[in-house]
C-alpha cells in the first residue's frame, strides 16, 4: 500500500487490510458520508462513527464502532454469523472469549467491531447527532467480528532489556493492552520468563 496514513499502527494495519480486500477506502468513505464521530480515548477504549449509507433506498444511518473487544462485546446484544444476525447467547460469548484469549496469547493486538442501522423513525435524515452529550443509541449493537494484528516490538528491545537486567535495573512494562497480550509481549522481549507473571 503506497500512501500516507494518519493514525497509529493499528489504524494503518486496518486501512491496509481493507484496501487490499475491499478496494479504495477513500471511495468507500465518499459513498458513505460520516456525519458524527466519537474518537478513541483510553477511558472508553472505542471509536464510533455514524454514516449515511450509499443505498438510495435506505435512509437509515449506520453506526460503526471498533475498539477493545471486551468493551465492544459489552455493547452488543446480537451477532452476525454467516451473514445472519442472531441473538448473542452465553455460548457465543464463551467462543468470543476463547478466540480473544488465543489471539491475545500470541501477542497480537485484537480489535472488536460492531454496527447498527439506526431506526429511521428515531433518527430521521438530518438528525443532529451530539457526540458530546450523546443523544443516540450506543448499546444493543450487533457484533460483527474480531481482527488481530501483529505489532512486533522493535528489534532492539530484547537486547535493551538484557542490558538493563545485567546492570541491575528492574524493567517494568506499561501498556494499554489486554493482560494476556501484554504477558505474551513481555515474554517475547525478555521482561518475564516462562512461569513468571
Please, could you describe this protein's structure?
With 197 residues, the protein is an alpha+beta fold. The chain has six helices and seven strands. A seven-stranded mixed sheet has the order 1-2-3-6-7-4-5. Strand 1 and strand 2 (46-51) form a beta hairpin. Helix 4 (90-105) packs parallel to helix 6. The longest helix is centred in the middle third of the chain and has 16 residues, at 90-105. It is elongated and about 65 Å long.
Main beta sheet: 7 strands, mixed
- DSSP helix fraction: 25-40%
Q: Which strands sit side by side, in order, in the main sheet?
A: 1-2-3-6-7-4-5
Number of helix segments? 6
Number of domains: 2
CATH class term of the largest domain: Alpha Beta
**Mean of residue pLDDT?**
90
Per DSSP E runs of 2 or more residues, the count of β-strands stands at 7
Task: Give the N-terminus to C-terminus distance in angstroms.
Answer: 39 Å
Please tell me how large the radius of gyration is.
20 Å
How would you spell out the order of helices and strands? HHEEEHEEHEEHH
Structure class: alpha+beta
Q: What's the CATH H-level homologous superfamily of the largest domain? A: Calcium-transporting ATPase, cytoplasmic domain N
- Roughly what fraction of the amino acids lie in strands? 15-25%
GO molecular function: ATP binding; metal ion binding; P-type monovalent copper transporter activity; P-type sodium:potassium-exchanging transporter activity
Enzyme class: translocase
Pfam family, one: Cation_ATPase
Protein name: P-type Cu(+) transporter
Amino acid at each position: 500500500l503506497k500512501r500516507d496514513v494518519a493514525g497509529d499502527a493499528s489504524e494503518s494495519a486496518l486501512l491496509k487490510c481493507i484496501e487490499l480486500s475491499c478496494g479504495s477506502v477513500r471511495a468507500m468513505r465518499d459513498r458513505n458520508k460520516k456525519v458524527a464521530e466519537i474518537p478513541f480515548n483510553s477511558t472508553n477504549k472505542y471509536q464510533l462513527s455514524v454514516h449515511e449509507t450509499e443505498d438510495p433506498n435506505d435512509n437509515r444511518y449506520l453506526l460503526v464502532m471498533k475498539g477493545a473487544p471486551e468493551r465492544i462485546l459489552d455493547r452488543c446484544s446480537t451477532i452476525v454469523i454467516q451473514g445472519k444476525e442472531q441473538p448473542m447467547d452465553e455460548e457465543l460469548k464463551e467462543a468470543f472469549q476463547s478466540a480473544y484469549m488465543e489471539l491475545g496469547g500470541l501477542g497480537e493486538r485484537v480489535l472488536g467491531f460492531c454496527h447498527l442501522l439506526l431506526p429511521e423513525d428515531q433518527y430521521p435524515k438530518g438528525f443532529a447527532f451530539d457526540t458530546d452529550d450523546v443523544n443516540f443509541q450506543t448499546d444493543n449493537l450487533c457484533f460483527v467480528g474480531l481482527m488481530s494484528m501483529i505489532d512486533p516490538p522493535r528489534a532492539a528491545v530484547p537486547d535493551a532489556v538484557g542490558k538493563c537486567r545485567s546492570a541491575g535495573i528492574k524493567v517494568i512494562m506499561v501498556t494499554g493492552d489486554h493482560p494476556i497480550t501484554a504477558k505474551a509481549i513481555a515474554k517475547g522481549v525478555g521482561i518475564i520468563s516462562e512461569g513468571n507473571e
